């Protein structure tokens, strides 16, 4: 069977092709009774708009790029941050009849491919996730005529709106909890220092220790469980007398708990542990993990709303979401 045409819809509804086109493309300059007649003809004929032709008329693709600056092995790993953010953004966009185009960009070749795709007009906006300090995409995309927002404050000085959580304040709350419980030698496993979350959470840790006359004891991981285990072993070698550790994300905290258990250290009797994120696994570690709740799903949804608002000329002010201390048995 031949695919129904817009001309056939117009003939069935008794209107011109131009009027049928305005209705199909969502324009509001058509009388309600004419709009109803056109939509009834669309249903009766089973008409489906041609996406390419519709984009030419509306100047919209109804697609949003979600660019993750990580390799697939990291995005599709045990880290629930990525799946939660992608799912939340997709649901928020689906509610307004838009789709996500997921793009991974972790190499110069993939950076160039993403930039070409965006510059080609294939999407109506871009959301950036997990950017690192040397990432060229924020600066490159900010020069294109397309709205861009970032999940987290950009690590480079570029004028891109963003949605973040209070990394510094959250870290301060976690470390103050350890100080209030009487811990004296408080170490940290910091996140990657080419990422804003890693930098800000380390800043919060150092601020509280400086104000409480304690010295910093720092090891650095990469937000993976294995790096947390390695960093914890390093901290125990560097300062066997440490009695607490603030870990910049929960996955690394899971690795740290494993290393403490292997070293014969009791948690929290010998070493108290505080994480960051409040992933689902934090409830089921041994012992359950005290952590800072990072609203990943809410942050991704707010990023979508900020982007859609920009497309309509809305405000571009940063959005900062609060964190919350969740006290469990590890501290």
Automatic annotation (TrEMBL):
Classification lineage: Bacteria, Bacillati, Actinomycetota, Actinomycetes, Streptosporangiales
Gene3D superfamilies in alphabetical order: 3.40.50.2300, lambda repressor-like DNA-binding domains (1.10.260.40)
Entry protein name: Transcriptional regulator, LacI family
Keywords: DNA-binding, Transcription, Transcription regulation
Pfam families: LacI, Peripla_BP_3
Limits of the HTH lacI-type domain: 4-58
MF terms (GO), sorted A to Z: DNA-binding transcription factor activity; transcription cis-regulatory region binding
Transmembrane segments: none
Cross-referenced InterPro entries: HTH_LacI (IPR000843), LacI/GalR-like_sensor (IPR046335), Lambda_DNA-bd_dom_sf (IPR010982), Peripla_BP_I (IPR028082)
